[in-house]
Structure formats: C-alpha cells, structure tokens
Amino acid sequence: MSDFEENQSLLGEDDARSFTGRRTPRDPDRPLPAICDPSRFLHRVVVLGFMCFLGFGSYFCFDNPAALQTQVIQDLNLNTAKFMQLYAWYSWPNVVLCFFGGFLIDRVFGIRLGTIIFSLFVCVGQVIFAAGAWVNKFWLMEAGRFVFGIGGESLAVAQNTYAVNWFKGKELNLVFGLQLSMARLGSTVNMNIMGWVYSKMADVFGSTGYATLGASLMIAAVTCVFSLMCALVLGFLDKRAERILQKEQGKTGEVIKLTDVKDFPLTLWLIFIICVGYYVAIFPFIGLGQVFFIEKFNFSPAEARAVNSIVYIISAPASPVLGFMVDKTGRNVIWVITAVVTTLAAHIMLAFTFWNPWIAMSLLGVSYSLLACALWPMVAFVVPEHQLGTAYGFMQSIQNLGLALIAIAAGAIVDNKGYLVLEVFFCACICIALIAVMMLYFVDYVRGGELNQSASARAKLQKEATAEAEIKRCTSKQTKGELARLAPMSAFCLRNRYLSRLGAQLPDHCSTHLSSLAYRSVLK
Amino acid sequence: MATAMETRCSRVWSSFLFWVLGTLSQGLVGGAASYTRQLSVELNPGAPSVPLSSELLHVRAVGNNDTLHFLFSSQGAPTLLLVHTNTSSSTVKVSWPQFLARNTSGSLRVEPEDSILYSTAVLFSRLLEYDDVNDTATPTSNFFPPYELQNFSWSRFNLSGPTALVCGADANFTSGSLCLQLSVFESEGHGNLWPRLLHSANASQLRVWLDGVLPRADHSRFLLELQAVSGAAPLSRVDVHQSIDDEFTPSIFKVSQWVSSENSSSDILGFVQWKPVAYRRPSPAVEDATPCRHSDPRAQSEKAVAARSGLITAFFSGGEAVGLNVSFGLAGEPFYNSTKFLSWTALVGIGSPPVDSFSPLVLTIMAVCLGTPMILLLLGGVCVCLHKRRAASETAYEPIN
C-alpha cells in the first residue's frame, strides 16, 4: 500500500516538475551553459549517450559464447551440452531475480547505487568468465556467467528507470527506441567482431588455445568496464541534477506480490505458455546457430556469425514499425498467431531444406519482433494494473526457467541426436506456443473477444470508459484522494503504458503514464 | 451438455489421431520391410592350417535367389572381396597351396563361374603420414615414408558372429596398431558406434582405426590410401550427397559414395560409402569428430595393386584398378598427437547405396506437432459455432420470458 502511495505522488509530482523544474537552477545569477544544465535538451542528449552505453557491455558480452562457439568448444574441449550450460547459468539467477530487481533498486540501493552495483556484477562476472577460460577451468566460467546474469537483467531494469526519470514527458519513446537499437547494436557488433578479435589474439599468442580465448574474452570485458564507467558518470550526473533541480531519485514503481499468482486468469497462463514456448525456440537456437550454419550450410565462420546476427539486426528497425502497425490495427491475438506460424515455418525450413538460411533467419527476425510487439502488451489487458508488476515478473521468471532448462536440453540433443532432431524439438516448442495461442483465441472469443479487438473498437470502448470515469470524478471530487487510488486506469492508459515499454513509437501525448517496468526480455 | 459433448468429441479425436499416427508410421517406417539374408561364416574354408598373416574369412550371405560372398583376407594388404552371384547355391573354391604362394590367378574361384553378376575388391594399401607444420591440412609435402600395409604383421582373425577383427603393426611401430573390423549384416539397421551408418543386407561395414601408434612428428596428420579392383565396371567416381538428416551422425550432413557404373546414367553396381568424418576416441562423443576429405579417384595399374594383395591375385585376372586417398583432419583441427587415436568407417556393398530416411521419432514428433493445432482448429471451430448458436437461441427465447 505504501508503495502505491509513493507511486501516485511520484507520478503526480513528475508532471508538475516537467514544467516547473526547468526554471529552478540553483544559482539564477550564473546560468549554466546548455550542455551542463540538467534542464536543457543538450544536457539530456549527453545523458542519453551514457544511458545507451550503460547497457552496451552487458548486451555485447551476453552472446560472447555464441559468437565464439567453435573456439569455445574446441579450446576447452567441451561438448555442446556443456557449452549451453554457459547460457543456462546466465538464466538461473534471473528465475528469482526478476521479482527483486525493481525492489532492490527502489528500496535497497536506490537507482544510482543500484546501477553501479549491477554494472559491477556484469563487469566482475565477465572478468571471472574470461579468467576461467584463461586458466581452462570450466566451472569458473560457469560461475562468471552466473555473476554476469545477476547483474545483466537487473541492469536493464535500472537503465529503463533512468530513462523514465530523465525523459518522462519528453522524448521517452525515442529514448526507449534508441536504447533498444543500442541493445541490438551490442549483440550484432559482438556477433561480427569477436571472431576477428580472437584471430588477432591468436596472432599475438602464436597459437589458438584457451589462453587466446581468455584474452579475447578479457578484451570483451573492456566493454563492461566502459559500461561501468557510464554507470559512474550517470550516477554523478543524476546526483548533480537532483541537487540542481531538487528532483527525486527515479523509481521503478514496481510492486510484486506473489500471492497474486493464484488470481491470474486462464488467459494469462496461456500467455505465459506462449512466451516460454516461443522464446525457448529463439535464444537457445541463436546460441547454437553458428556451428549449425557451418556444418549444414557450409558457411564460413564469419558468414555463419553474420547470418546468426541477422535476427538482431532486423528487429532493430522492425520493432518500431511493427509496434506501430499492431498499435494501429489492434487484433493482438491474430498478430501473435501470425508471428508464431511464421516462426514455425522458418524452423521447418531450417530443419527440412537446404534453402539459403538467410531467408529463414530473416523471417525469424521479423516474426520475433512482431511477437514482442503483440504479445507483451496483452498482459496489460488481462490483469488489473496493481498485479502487472507481479505478472511481468512471473512471466520473466518462468521464461528464464524455460530458457535455462531448454538450453541444457538443446545442447544434449545436438550431442546425441544432431541438428535435425534439435530443429524438430524447436518446432515442437513452437507448436506448444501455437496450441496455446489458438486456445487463447478461442477462450477470448467465447469471453467476448477483448484481446482481439481491432484498434477502432478498442478506441470506442475506451472513449466510453473515459467518459464514465470523467463523470465519476466530477461527482466525487471531495474524496478524490481516496478514490483515485482505487479507480482503475483506463484501458487506454494501460495500453500505452505497456506499449511504450516496448519502445513502440507513440505520440507523446499518449504516454502520460509511463512506467519503466521494462525488462530485458521485452527489449530482446 | 456442451462440456460432455466436448469431452466425447476430444476422445473421438484423440483416438482418430492415434490411428492416423499408427498408419503413418507403419506406412513410412515399418512398411518398407527390409531385405534379409542368411549368413554363414567360415574361416579359411578347406584349409587345415594357415600361417599367420594369410588368413581368409568367408561370409556367405544367401538371399532369396542370389548369394553374396564376402571374402576378407590379411594376406598382403587387407582386402575385402565382394562377389555377387545370381544363384543361392554358388560356392567358393580355394586351392590353398597356390593361394598361399600368391602367384596364380584362379586359385580362388566362385562357382559356377557364369553365375557371377558383379565382383569388386577394396584394399587398404598404405598409411601415409605428413608433418603439418603450418597447420594447413593440405597433404602436399613433408611426407614421411609411407607405411605399406602389405608389410604389416597381422594377427589372426578374431571372430564374433559375423564380425571379424584383425590388427597389424609395421616393423617400425614402437607401440600401437592398426586394426580393421569387418561386419556383415543379415538385415537393415544402424551401427552402434558413430558414424552409425545405415547398412543393409547388401553391404558390409569396415571400420579402420589407428590406436596408440606414435606419430613421427608433433604435427602429424594421416591419410589412408584405398584401392579398388572391379570385374566389370570400376569404382570410377565419388558422389557427395547432401542429407538433411543428421540424426544418426550428429552435425554431419554429407555422404560420400564411391560408386561404379557402366556409364553415369545407368544403375550403380557397387559402392563404397562413408560419411566425411573420423573420430579421435574409441567411444566417441560429438566433440571427438574430425572431418575428413577424399581425393579424386585415379586409375592404377592392376598389376601393382594385385601385387599388394593375395586375394586380388587369386581371384582377378585383369580388371580395372582405381585408387584414392582419404585424409583426416582440417586446418585448425587438433593433431593426431592429441589423442593418438583415429577411426574411420565405410560401407562396401553392391547395388545402390542405402539412403537414410527420417526416423520414427522425428516423424512422430512432427505429426503430433502439426496435427494437434489442426485438430484444435477444427475442435475450436465447432465449439465456437456451438457457442454462437447457443447464444443466439438464448437471445431468441428472451422475448418469450
């Protein structure tokens, strides 16, 4: 309850601050130059730069194993199952941490210290990971990935909190979009550059081997150090802005109540199944992709890394466009079905044909972006707002659990049954998602088709709802403080709030209630 | 009412699904009942005692109306001879004194002679070793003197059922040995060890491995020289086929087939088939796989080939000889020195090489995965229709109330 009060006051104050805050520098006699003035656009651009690079290191290093798959397997003499443990160990801490990331930032560390701590975790994790490779101790590498995982997801939450804190009511959608693009850029650059770094290191060392691998990963760790420095600078700038503008520290505003789980409707459980079934067929596949393209399609390692990164490259520009499209048309369930079926087709293509994998991977990139745009906002339609934090936390948690388990299973399948069976297995996962989304369609249809409304129908409903709310508000003005807390947000507000989490481009006036409940998976 | 109907519906549907699956898997997997042969194994047929390194194994595989004779000998370089006859009563005759003298053609005959449809022999002639200093895996220079397999001292055949094992060592080996294992099969199936090639009753499997032999350089890589002599059409070309199915040999999507045919369009008479992979450990895991490549087949002098093998001298008079090399390892792959073990497997058979098909596992998963959403679509459609109709009838009755 106290959480809720805080959020309310925060939201209210913030709107006011965006207008009044601009004119309150500490010393009115000596105006700061624009680049140093926290209330000016130019200064925010500088902050934005640091904000974008804050996540760069973790995104860059997350897919290090995928980019160096052949080298990791060969230098450390691993099998694929062991290799996939590196991804599983990243996911394990997040099965639990999804529920606490927001809490830690809001209540324990505060945004500034929290960001620095999470960056430190990322940094230390990557260094441990690299050191493990250096001394050829695989358990140390796993430990490194675990520590890296502790920092990684929570850092994404912190990054978005900063974004909301600095850009709410201003260029927030653009900022989310840019952060998203930076995340993609980090992954893409990693995929395409690590092979080159490794070969340079091999020249330096005179041979390939685990020491070369360790050195390459240490170089990758430089991006994490860079991100840590961004966190420090950002912390300093935020503190300074707080002093000058007398504003509050940013909050995630996330409320997690695990007992809410028992109240989750059937449709939400179906959405969870879709989420797990779908994402486990994407990320572990990308983790294993490089060797698959080399072995099956005779690609060179560089080419294989490039085709593996096309999913990320496509989703950078496609996410805002598709987000806009879903936004304009509504009918989320149909879009999700389309995305799932397209992904299934792409996996079937990879499994049963020798067609150029650029086709299948591009399809995968588009459908994956479409799914993110259509699936995640649906959660906001099926649960009341006060349960949203729990719902998203839970969704992420089981997604991470699924990713960890399936990563291990996928590695074991490749080792024992090969890539055909692996692809068939991924098809099976997608089919589970497909069955779930079809059931969602029917259940929703029987219950009145709320989820699958077209945008115009939704707008109409929302108009009625706002009109009703307006009337209510007028009639009970004296008890506004008490009632406003209980009054549900309009569907319109909810929708925009969660669409903006995806970095979907909304007109600025729509995003009045922006929350930073943005997680890595949403951004992924 | 609706729920009761739904459950009954789903029960009907699920039994239907199982029926469809059952027929599907029967039709695609069990339906192609594989051809079987009766095997009888005989060591040194008709000889009381045979000196070491001159043994002859004869496996007679009798089909419905034909016979395949597999003859495997360690006299000289290890050689496998396949003779296909069109009667189920053909026999092998060996005149041992001449066979052991290794100088007369016709000392080993398959009778009746005019029943022979096709004959081919494959021998492992040499083991080549080169020092790959720059790790390029291109065997062009830095060769060590080759090991001639005809000069190896071979052990006696170790028989277990239709499987024979023979190991040999060169005089220069300080340790280790080169072993060959021949397996002949009654029916279709997959081997137990990777690469788990699909064999049929018309093919035998040869596994060659080098175990514990000390390399002559730290960066040594090996090549194996194969030679083939055929009665009719020589094994003239190597086809490399792509296969989407790597279930039995994880991450290998190619099959190499060294085939003989009168001309490129006609039927294949005989073949040597392998997957381009060798393994660096005796019981391999997927990370122990190392790719291998083959050279183009080249014509050889039949005389020179026959001089290496007692079996070829004894059976063939004339015929065409072809040879090729299989080289193990690619640039960047670990050297032989890392495990001191290398194994490679090939099938030698007659007729067209066997082609892998999807396993029941893959077919079942795909059928269930694609079938369930379809069924759900139908079921859901029906339920939605019912729901709609019920809703419509409810509203229709409303005015009466």
From TrEMBL, chain A:
Ranges annotated as spanning the membrane: 41-62, 83-105, 111-135, 210-237, 266-286, 306-326, 333-352, 358-382, 394-414, 420-443
Pfam families: MFS_1
UniProt KW keywords: Lysosome, Membrane, Transmembrane, Transmembrane helix, Transport
Major facilitator superfamily (MFS) profile domain ranges (all copies): 41-447
Principal cellular location given in the protein's record: membrane
Entry GO MF terms: transmembrane transporter activity
Subcellular location: Lysosome membrane
InterPro entries in alphabetical order: MFS, MFS_dom, MFS_trans_sf, MFSD1
Catalytic activity: L-arginyl-L-alpha-amino acid(out) = L-arginyl-L-alpha-amino acid(in); L-lysyl-L-lysine(out) = L-lysyl-L-lysine(in); L-alpha-aminoacyl-L-histidine(out) = L-alpha-aminoacyl-L-histidine(in); L-lysyl-L-alanine(out) = L-lysyl-L-alanine(in)
Membrane association type: Multi-pass membrane protein
Gene Ontology cellular component list: lysosomal membrane
Function: Lysosomal dipeptide uniporter that selectively exports lysine, arginine or histidine-containing dipeptides with a net positive charge from the lysosome lumen into the cytosol. Could play a role in a specific type of protein O-glycosylation indirectly regulating macrophages migration and tissue invasion. Also essential for liver homeostasis.
Family to which this protein belongs: Belongs to the major facilitator superfamily.
PANTHER family with a match to the protein in the record: MAJOR FACILITATOR SUPERFAMILY DOMAIN-CONTAINING PROTEIN 1
Subunit record text: Homodimer. Interacts with lysosomal protein GLMP (via lumenal domain); the interaction starts while both proteins are still in the endoplasmic reticulum and is required for stabilization of MFSD1 in lysosomes but has no direct effect on its targeting to lysosomes or transporter activity.
Protein name (Swiss-Prot/TrEMBL): Lysosomal dipeptide transporter MFSD1
UniProtKB/TrEMBL annotation, chain B:
Protein name: Glycosylated lysosomal membrane protein isoform X1
Membrane-traversing stretches: 361-386
Stored InterPro entries: NCU-G1 (IPR029382)
Designated gene of the protein: glmp
Source organism superkingdom: Eukaryota
Record keywords, A-Z: Glycoprotein, Lysosome, Membrane, Signal, Transmembrane, Transmembrane helix
Topology in membrane: Single-pass type I membrane protein
Primary role: Required to protect lysosomal transporter MFSD1 from lysosomal proteolysis and for MFSD1 lysosomal localization.
Keyword Flavoprotein: no
Quaternary assembly: Interacts (via lumenal domain) with lysosomal protein MFSD1; the interaction starts while both proteins are still in the endoplasmic reticulum and is required for stabilization of MFSD1 in lysosomes but has no direct effect on its targeting to lysosomes or transporter activity.
Signal peptide (residue range): 1-25
Entry similarity comment: Belongs to the GLMP family.
GO CC annotation terms, alphabetical: lysosomal membrane
Top-level taxonomy: Eukaryota, Metazoa, Chordata, Craniata, Vertebrata
Subcellular localization: Lysosome membrane
Organism: Parambassis ranga (Indian glassy fish)
